[in-house]
Amino acid sequence: MLHSHLTTLNAVSLILDTFKTEGVASEVLLAGSGICGADLSRADTCITTNQEMRVCTNAVALRRDIGLELGQRMHVSSYGMLGYALLTSATFGDALRLALRYPALLGTLFELSLEEDGQRIWFTASDYRENPALTEFNVEFCLVSLKVICDDLLGHPLPLLGARFEHSAPDYRARYAERFDCPLQFEATANAFAFDRYWLDQPLPLADAITHRAMAERCRKQNTEFTGRQAWLGRVRLLLAAQLSAAPGIDGLAEQMNCSPRTLRRHLHDLGCSYQELLDELRFERAKQLLGEDELPIYRIAEQLGFSETASFRHAFVRWSGVAPSQFRL
């Protein structure tokens, strides 16, 4: 999707580790994502959310309820400097408000908020705009991981008063009770869990003012750098998306970005992608959109995406999705 932004490898690494114990090769989970082993060995590698979602799609195909397990493994220490800044906050409320200030560092796909409801506080995840087929997975992953963060900050489980989910109850509903020890509501108007507002003023056991100030400042700088890189990649994606019928090539795109091809390649590599991967990603998203509209014949779609031959488009689409364009359209 064109609004795809940057994120870390945290979730991808977690997925690989989780399935490794079940004997699933990393190549199976990374298929179609453009992520390779070398990327995983670099601590500073950034990937796009589209790449992350490709790995998640592969994981869900193997286990539909995997989001509940993955969320349980996302401890506060998984968030680097932000995690330490949260742990050293003075109170539970201070930590949560700091987390909401830096959604890019959390890597969330939702708009997070704390909503007052009398004596209750609802920790809400809204405005999901990623792959609709992964909605339930991402809701489960998000809310469970947020609950784990809360437990880690307090040093004990945060007592919950209720949990709500916009989707219908899945056939593995019983597993929800393992993660949310409270009344559950499905087909609700929001995705959220509630706790007593009393906890917002609860001092944290690992609070340390000096360490917190240092970590909070590093988070501010990291967030500025991270969002700047997101904005740069967003400009590249928009330029390329507007020229799919006649892609400019790495040299032409570099000229449009007012830099040399070498600089463009280096920046894209640092962001965990390449010109061809971006072009394929944008073509795939546009192809799915056009095939879904069911108006243009496949040869016209191939032309709009810059393929000189329909057969080349068919081969590319099979590589991206695993099925032919005609099958996808059914």
Automatic annotation (TrEMBL):
The keyword DNA-binding applies. Residues 234-330 form the HTH araC/xylS-type domain. InterPro entries: AraC-type_N, Homeodomain-like_sf, HTH_AraC. Keywords: DNA-binding, Transcription, Transcription regulation. Gene3D superfamilies: Homeodomain-like. GO terms for molecular function: DNA-binding transcription factor activity; transcription cis-regulatory region binding. The keyword Electron transport does not apply. One of its GO terms (cellular component) is cytosol. It holds the Pfam family Arabinose_bd. SMART domains: HTH_ARAC (SM00342). PANTHER family: HTH-TYPE TRANSCRIPTIONAL REGULATOR GADX, HTH-TYPE TRANSCRIPTIONAL REGULATOR VQSM. This is Helix-turn-helix domain-containing protein. It comes from Pseudomonas spelaei.
